[in-house]
Fold this protein.
Amino acid sequence: MTDSTAPPHGSDPARTKTLEWHDPAITAEAAKTMTGLDFLRAIISGELPPPPILSGFNATLAAADEGSVEFRCAPDESHYNPIGTVHGGYVCTMLDSALGCAAQSTLPAGTGYTSLEIKVSYLRPLFADSGQVTVTARVTKPGTRAAFAEGEVRDSDGKLIATATGTLLVFSV
């Protein structure tokens, strides 16, 4: 039985979202000509537009050093699964992004990467009111054919939400 007084799906104006992003080709082309670390720092400084996925995830690339990165994000109800927590796919995607960018920070110009595998351990749920989330990753073994990295997600109180390890394929672009 449904509540006939409840508003129809999608009618709550407080629960709408408009996404805007820049042409991803601009950033992708620049990636081919810069070292990975210079490329990531150009995104952080605003010299290059961020990748579109960050807009939908309310995320920013906050820091990059050789072999490590930090993202900050703010999940909201639009990232919820059917049981009222932030979907594990959101957490996994942010970890995958961090692992990949950590690996990218070690790469020379003309080199790219793609994820080969990722293993995520979810330790506690994440909610819209968890505040700003920090996602960090560091390379545990760089390479010219494969790179290995580990990462973690922490809520605004510093509580560990999830950890991950990943393997990334390195290739010429």
In short: The longest strand covers residues 160-172. The CA atoms of residues 42 and 48 lie 5 Å apart. The helical segments are 24-31, 36-45, 53-56, 88-104.
